[in-house]
Amino acid sequence: MRPLDPATRDLLANSLCDVGRRAVAMNLSPGASGNLSVRDGATMLMTPSGVGLGELSPARLAALDARSGEPAKQQPGVRPSKEVPLHTALYRRFPEAAAVVHLHSPQAVAYACKQPWSSVSAIPPLTPYLVMRVGRVPLAPYGTPGTDRLAASLDEVPGQFRAVLLAHHGLLAWGTTLDGALDAAVEVEEAARTALLAGPDAQPLPTPEVTALAQQYGTTW
Ligand SMILES: [Zn+2]
Question: Is-catalytic flag, 83?
């Protein structure tokens, strides 16, 4: 595996710390929950275990092989999040993914504990914005946090997606940039909030409108 050159590492590490602070500022990361990664080629940088996303420092990010999750080199005092397998599963599945965001944002967690809205999406398309910016948000079955079984639960979700809910746990979103991955996570949290506020008798957008929006914006529903 080619190591990151120092300038690229600095750039990616600073972006990761910045996105962590923004996630906390938006109340998307309670306590020390959540983890982030960013990839350049075969190498990914991952947030450490047990450190809140608002307290990240560039020196304490772990460099790992983005496919296998193996550490890139000896990094004394650096312990990556236990959810490395979840991130590498997404990088293997979506080769265009360059960043992965996993959060326990409150409303997405609430939706991850409900029956999925339909067989294609756990969250209904109440407004156009979820369809335009993210697309469908399927539900992956429960797996114990930090295990290969949780990562393997993604295999049970067929098809394309930008974000997925992990049953009884949280959300996972990817992007071609870190900002894009965070934007998808924010949209999922907002869509879950709207759906909870609107209640069970809320009217989803008509299917032809959803189909037209997904086609126009290049998303999947
Ligand atoms: Zn988690």
Answer: yes
- CATH code, domain carrying 111: 3.40.225.10
- Residue 1: inside a domain: no
- How far is the centre of ligand 1, averaged over its atoms, from the C-alpha of 193 (Å)? 19
Return the SS3 of 65. Answer: strand
How many domains does the chain fold into?
A: 1
C-alpha of residue 88 to centroid of ligand 1, in Å: 15
Residues 55, 83, 96, 187: which is the catalytic one?
A: 83
Residue 121: both structure tokens together: 């999406």
Using a CB cutoff of 5 Å, list residues around ligand 1, an ion. Answer: 170
> What are the residue ranges in the chain where pLDDT is below 70?
1
Each residue's pLDDT tens digit, 79-94: 999 999 999 999 999 9
